[in-house]
Specification:
3 helices, elongated, mainly alpha
């Protein structure tokens, strides 16, 4: 089933941005993404009002990239732990189950 992707326009840091959502693949709306970016940039602006828009945008990009990398690493660690636990469980089952030979 092919979905029609609608280009949407948003205001981020005073710039009109055209953004095409990737909702079909991620179930995350364009509005959610833009809202999160606006939240991060507003937090930075409140903490450091002397920064210009370019600096705010750069710091927001770095913060979001840091969050993404952290989440990816946590995911990889959790998958590794899950794999080890599954292997341990399988080994335990093999040890306590009677042999079928």
């Amino acid at each position: 089933m092919e979905s029609i992707r609608e280009e949407k326009e948003f205001n981020v840091l005073g710039y009109k941005i055209k953004f095409t959502p990737e909702e079909a693949e991620t179930n995350i709306s364009a509005e959610d993404v833009v809202s999160y970016v606006q939240k991060v940039t507003e937090e930075i602006r409140q903490k450091s009002p002397q920064l210009d828009i370019g600096q705010v945008a750069t710091l927001a990009a770095l913060k979001i990239a840091n969050e993404k990398i952290s989440i990816e690493r946590d995911f990889e660690n959790n998958i590794s732990k899950l794999h080890m636990t599954a292997c341990d469980a399988l080994q335990f089952i093999e040890e306590v189950s009677p042999s079928t030979i």
